[in-house]
Design brief:
Blueprint: H1 9-18, E1 21-22, H2 23-30, H3 34-46, E2 52-54, E3 57-59, H4 71-74, E4 75-77, E5 83-89, H5 101-113, E6 118-121, H6 144-154, E7 162-167, H7 172-179, H8 183-193, E8 199-204, E9 206-212, E10 219-225, H9 237-245, E11 254-257, E12 263-268, E13 271-276, H10 284-288, E14 296-304, E15 310-319, H11 323-327
Parallel strand pairs: 4-9, 5-6, 6-7, 7-8, 10-11, 11-13
Antiparallel strand pairs: 1-3, 2-3, 5-14, 9-10, 12-13, 14-15
């Protein structure tokens, strides 16, 4: 067959969103060879376009694939006394001009100094792209693949530390909604391609982790969630409503919430509840909605009884200020520029 057209990535994606097709059907549609069509699909997948193969047919997935339970990433053992220590971070919104990479680095320095090996990230690790935030993105952070690469190149990395993360249904999730695919898995795959093995995708919107007492083998559940919805008039109201919505049998011992950009700790119906804060200065959206952003993160210390119950929890929170505080301006109207937090940038 004479090649009349080499299909573009966007064209293939649009075609396969309509229906599943074999490679022969794709080649016939574009009037190109099977080899050319196959090369185009492979390159599209390599560059982050959500195309999947189902037997002999290709399609853009219409449902975000869930992450199956894996003992390697979803089961965490305590020490001999039943103790756990986690770094907690959320809503880093990398790619936004309001990102706080200085705070990211300072938190990871703190985690490393405390010997933390597991960091739990509550989602919205990139800012995504919509019409209302497009003009507040870094120049190099426009488009799905550019945002993923921005994350892989800049997100903190420390020896011996793994970041377990969920994906939100907003921001990074906007790409799933508009294009299909698996944004959380795409990030992990790109990280591995670039030599990073410290980012582990654990679920879309939420993930349950099994906490196993090292001595007795008894277990409890920790839930990491990016719930959605807006903040309420009281800090604890939104977490309370989420906990009240749990179905019988799924109630965890601990739940960590991203999304609301708040730092807050409570015990709700016997569940330890931690809001993870954010690592982003107030943006135009937050200002218009009259929201408060709590910039910071936590170390969460848990102790598990021999029968598996999490009967003790201690949060250690660190709060940071608007970047103008570190610039010496004490004003939200100061220039948006990257600065170093007082703790300095750690070494990988």
């Amino acid at each position: 067959m004479e090649i009349r057209c080499k299909p573009s990535f966007d064209s293939i994606r649009a075609l396969l969103r309509k229906r599943e097709m074999t490679i022969d059907e794709i080649a016939h549609h574009y009037g190109c060879t099977v080899g050319t069509a196959l090369d185009s699909i492979r390159l599209a997948i390599k560059f982050g376009h959500p195309i999947a193969r189902y037997g002999e047919r290709y399609a853009v997935p219409k449902v975000t694939p869930q992450v199956p339970f894996s003992a390697k990433r979803h089961r965490i053992k305590s020490d001999a006394s039943g103790a756990y220590r986690f770094g907690v971070i959320s809503d880093t919104h990398l790619g936004s001009k309001h990102e706080r990479l200085d705070v990211c680095e300072a938190l990871y320095d703190w985690f490393a100094a405390e010997g933390i090996t597991h960091v739990l990230h509550g989602g919205n690790w990139i800012d995504g792209e919509k019409s209302f935030n497009r003009h507040e993105l870094q120049d190099e952070a426009h488009g799905r693949q550019n945002q993923l690469r921005y994350m892989v190149e800049r997100y903190p990395q420390r020896k011996g530390m793994t970041t377990l993360y969920v994906a939100g249904d907003d921001h990074e999730g906007w790409y799933n909604q508009s294009d299909g695919g698996d944004i959380g898995g795409d990030l992990e795959r790109l990280a591995i391609e670039e030599g990073r093995n410290d980012l582990a995708y654990c679920g879309y919107v939420e993930s349950f982790f099994t906490l196993e007492h090292a001595r007795t083998g008894e277990t409890s559940k920790l839930m990491l969630q990016h719930p959605g919805g807006g903040s309420a008039y009281a800090l604890s109201y939104a977490p309370q409503k989420v906990v009240e919505s749990f179905q019988p049998g799924e109630k965890p011992g601990v739940v960590i919430f991203g999304h609301w950009h708040k730092l807050e700790f409570a015990n709700i119906r016997g569940i330890w509840s931690l809001q993870a804060g954010c690592v982003k200065d107030l943006d135009t959206f937050g200002r218009k909605k009259r929201l408060s952003y709590h910039v910071g993160g936590s170390i969460l210390e848990l102790r598990q009884g021999p029968r598996g119950e999490v009967h003790e929890a201690t949060p250690r929170m660190r709060y940071y200020y608007d970047r103008s505080y570190y610039n010496g301006q004490f004003s939200l109207s100061g220039p948006i520029r990257k600065v170093r937090a007082p703790h300095g940038r750690g070494k990988n």
